[in-house]
Each structure stands twice: as structure tokens, then as C-alpha cells.
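Our consortium's second objective concerns turning raw sequence data into structural hypotheses that experimental partners can test. To show how far this objective has progressed, the report includes one record in full. It was chosen at random from the queue rather than selected for favorable results. The single chain below, 282 residues long, was entered without modification.
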Amino acid sequence: MTPDPIQQPEQARSRHRSSLQNVDYNLGICGWLLVLLSLILTVITLPVSIWMCTKIVKEYERAIIFRLGRILRGGAKGPGLFFILPCTDSFINVDMRTITFDIPPQEVLTKDSVTVSVDGVVYYRVQNAILAVANITNADAATRLLAQTTLRNVLGTKSLAEILSDREEIAHSMQSSLDDATDDWGIKVERVEIKDVKLPTQLQRAMAAEAEASREARAKVIAAEGEMKASRALKEASLVIAESPSALQLRYLQTLNTIAAEKNSTIIFPLPLDILQGFLKG
């Protein structure tokens, strides 16, 4: 049965991680002689040498010990007290706390050919101290550069409307891409957030004019609908008044009452044309 080509890189990475975490003591004869001489020298110079051999790492740190250039078996040491040989051993402290950094504003050309400036923030931590030391020179700088590139790549496949409305989906996509890429470095990307999307000034003006025109169009439609409903109500009222001539006179009185309540000095009293018809006939 032929192996799956997709699973081969993942299997290679897992073998590489296990080989780093289970480093053997293949120091050779010369190496063991140097270790023995260093141990004898430490015993002879006691108790002065104890201050050189004793090291302490904090709760949030881990120490990677190198003996003659090889990582000691057992993985990272700490937190607390550990011992090293002063002549053959060296160690590197690795901070295991969550680290936050800002992604500088990136000029991105969207899918619909709009240039926008987008920045964000990334939260990550060292998940495997040995991989973070042995597999990459500077995990922090590499993660920062990769975050900038990933931001441009992800936003380049989105339109302007998607960038403005689907920030959470874009952040999840960036987090997944970064987490897969930094897995070999022992880095775990915990969260990615899009902070701000800055549009060009001309585009902002065009979008504002478009929104204003859209609001004016909706206002005109609403006003037209109101006029139509009002005309229908007036038509129904005129039909009711036409059925009862006295209703029109009552409406005149209501109008006079409304005008008088406003304390106007001039009152215009409408004279019904029906009254003048008797004089015209005479």
C-alpha cells in the first residue's frame, strides 16, 4: 500500500519533534571525558562552584540545557531549581507566557480592486520550548513577519464589503493559517483580531455620497407613500361630509376653534358657496 503524500509531511514533522524531545547522550568518548573532568572540577571547587551550577527559572519560564551542543534528554527544565555543569553546559530561557504584538498597517488590494489599509493584533505563546529554540532562530520575529504576510494574503481574496462585514471570519482564517505554519516552531497562535480598516479619503467621500443619496431616495419614497395614504383618507372624509351637509359646518367650527386657540389676530372664515347660490338665483 502506497503512503498518502499528504500525510508524509505531517509524519516527518512528528518524527522530528519526537527526535528533539528524546535526544540521546551520544557524546562520544571525548565528550564523556570532558563531562567527567567538569564534574571532578565542580567537586574539587565546592562550595564555590555550587553557585555556578545552581540555576533558577521562574514559574512562566523553561530552560533548555545544551551539553556540548546537544539538548539534554528530558526536555525543558523548570520551573524552579536545576543544576548544570559550568564548563560543558549552557542553557537558554524561554518565556511561556502569552505574547501580544500589533500587526503594522498593511496596504492591501482587495478582490474588487480597492486599496485599503488594515492592521490587527495577534496573541500567541510558546507551546514547545525545545522546538522554539532548535527549529528557528527567532520565533518572535518570524511570527511577526508571517502575520503581516498572512494578513495581506487573506485580505487579497476578500472584497471590500466582506472585509468591512466579516471581520470575525477573516480573523479565524488568519488564526488557522498562522497556527498551521508556526506548529513546527512550537508556537501556538491563540487569537487574531482585525483592529481597523482605513479607506482612502476619496472612497470615503464616494461612499458617504452614495449613502446620502440612498437615504434621500428612501425619504422621498416614504413621503410619497404618506401623501398617497393622506389623499385616500381625504377622499374618504369628503365622501362622508358629502353625505351630511351639516358635517361641513361642524368642520368649519372645529377649524375656527383651532385657530382661536393659537391666539391669532386675523381669522379667515370660509364662506360656503352653497349659501351664495340662493342669492345668485334671485
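The partners drew two points from this record. The beta strands are 54-57, 61-67, 70-71, 80-83, 89-95, 99-109, 115-126, 187-198. The first helix runs from residue 7 to 21. Both points have been shared with the crystallography group to help prioritize constructs.
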